[in-house]
Structures are given as C-alpha cells and as structure tokens.
Hints:
The complex is a heterotrimer. Chain B is an alpha/beta fold. Chain B has four helices and five strands, in the order E-H-E-H-E-H-E-H-E. Chain B has one domain: Hypothetical Protein Ychn, Chain: A (3-Layer(aba) Sandwich). Helix content of chain B is 31%, strand content 22%. A five-stranded parallel sheet of chain B has the order 4-3-2-1-5. In chain C, strand 3, helix 3 and strand 4 form a beta-alpha-beta unit. A five-stranded parallel sheet of chain C has the order 4-3-2-1-5. Chains in contact: A-C, B-C.
Amino acid sequence: MATTTARTLMVEGQPIALDPEGYLVTLDDWSERVAEALAADDGRDLTPAHWEVIEVLRDFYQRFEAAPAMRPLVKAVKQSLGAEKGSSIYLMQLFPESPAKVGARLAGLPKPTNCL
Amino acid sequence: MQLHLLNRSPQSTAVYRDLGEAFGADDQLLLIEDACYAALPAASGVIEAFGGRVSVLEEDLVSRGLAGRVSPAITVVDMKGFLALTETHERCVSWF
Amino acid sequence: MTNIRASDIEPQDLMVVLRHPPHGSHWLREGIDVALVAAAFGQRVGLLFQGDGVYALLEGQQAGALGQKGTHPQLAMLEMYDIESLWVSAAALSERGLSIDDLMLPVKPLGAEAVAELMQVQPHTLIF
C-alpha cells in the first residue's frame, strides 16, 4: 500500500507514521498504547465501552481483510456485544462524527472504503 | 425487455454463452466495437442463439471495413437507430 | 440439485453479475465492491455468478503468490452487508465439473430459463 506519511505520533519513544487522514501507514504498528495515543491526540478518552468495539473492529478485519462500513459494523457489534449495543445511536455516542471511520482509525485498520 | 450491448469478437465464446443464457424472449442484442465481427456470415453459429433479434452498429462496421459483409439476418443501425433502440427498451445491459 | 424457479426470484434494487474468475483480473473485485457500496447505502443487492465467475465461489482459496489479496474474504463479508440473494448458473457449474457442495456460500442454482427470467425482473443490472 503506497500511503504517504503526513506526520508521526510519538508512542513510548517510537515514531508512529500517520497518513493525511490520521490512519496508520503501517497497520502492524498498532498496539493498545498506539490506540490510546491516537485517541488522546483527538482529545478522546477510551473507556471499556470503546475498547470492546475496537476489538470487534479488529476481529472484523481479521476475518474479512477490510474495514466495515457503518451497516456491517452495527451488525458485527450486535453479533458480538448484543442487540442493545448493536445500534447506530449507541455507536454514534461512543465515536461521534463517524463510528466506522473513527473506530477504524483507532483500531488500526485502513479507512473503510465503501462508506460515506 | 432489455437491450444487450456487446463489444467482444465472436472468438470470445464465453461472453456469448453467458449472454445467451441471460437473453430473454423479447430482448434485443446490439453488436458494437469488436462484436461487429459477429455480424459476418461466418459467425452465424454464434448468433443463432439470439433468435434473429440482433443489430449491428453501422459506424463500427464501416471503420472495420465490414460494411458490405453483414449477414442478411442482422439489421444494420446507425447512431440514431441505436438511440431509438435504447428508447424502446426498458434498460440497457453491457456485456464485455 | 434442485433448481430455483423463476417465481421464487425476488427483485432487488441492484443486481450484479460476476462472470470473471478470481486473481486473473480486477473485474471480480470491482463487481463485488460495487455490490458492497450499494449495500452500505441501504440498497437491496443480488449477485449472479455466471461463466468463470463461479470459480469465485470455490472453497479453499488463498491470497496470491505475491501476497495479493484474494476475493474470498470479500465474499465471506457479503453476509455482514446483508447481501443474501445469491444465485449461480447451474449450467456454468456443471460445465466446469462443479456442484453446490464445492462452493463457499449458500447460493441458489438457476437453470437457463431462470437466469433469463432473473434478468427480466431486476430493475438495474450491472455486468462484471
């Protein structure tokens, strides 16, 4: 993948390369510390509710080699975490703006391609 | 009622077979670009499956030097005729 | 193999016909991408596997020799996009010596007349 590095984020003394939209240039750079640093950089706090969705996202990518758009994300969360959390309203509260995009970024996935 | 557009030569047998399978009783086939070669009498075996509902685009025939060689079973249409076909069919489907 | 009859076919907002095999060209991936985008926007999408497109459904596919992504994870993902109307040309399968049991997804086999009927009832069709 030929992604350009727009800036780097220092995490535990290591420079982490980010593309112009803030996604990891090298997906293997991801760790929980990196996710926290990405969230802090946005001014977000990661609660256990965020972490369980991040885990769903990473599992989705493992299975399908792609980051989900909103509808499949809602479905995947519903399957893993139950119907109450598998709703766009719940996910919008956790990741305002765009759960699919913000979630993918924090989970160290590429930008979802088939999404607004 | 669909208008199928096809742009591959009759040597690309797979696309003719798949199109033949999808071709409905009221459908029409228009041969364009390299599919013009299917309008020659030598390709009548490939064209038979489309029940005489086959046209070929004149502009593409002429540029390939095929104008006088079209099989009598096939209707030659110009750009206006092409347009008329798209208007009389519910939708167009492109095969390539 | 029981073939689906034309009367069992429900029209979708969009039908995508996949007629190219995996790995050899970008056509299959592009067709699946179009289906996923449409489904992400809430359209009901159906897929018809025809010709060499039936090879996309074979069990046991892997990434390419140079690590190029295959299309099988994309197909496995269809369910997450609620793309569940999946049809396959029965003739294309049998010409290639394949049966439904060789395939990775629950697709419905269509006889030749049902394929033509399917094309008639779909309001929008794109061929890849």
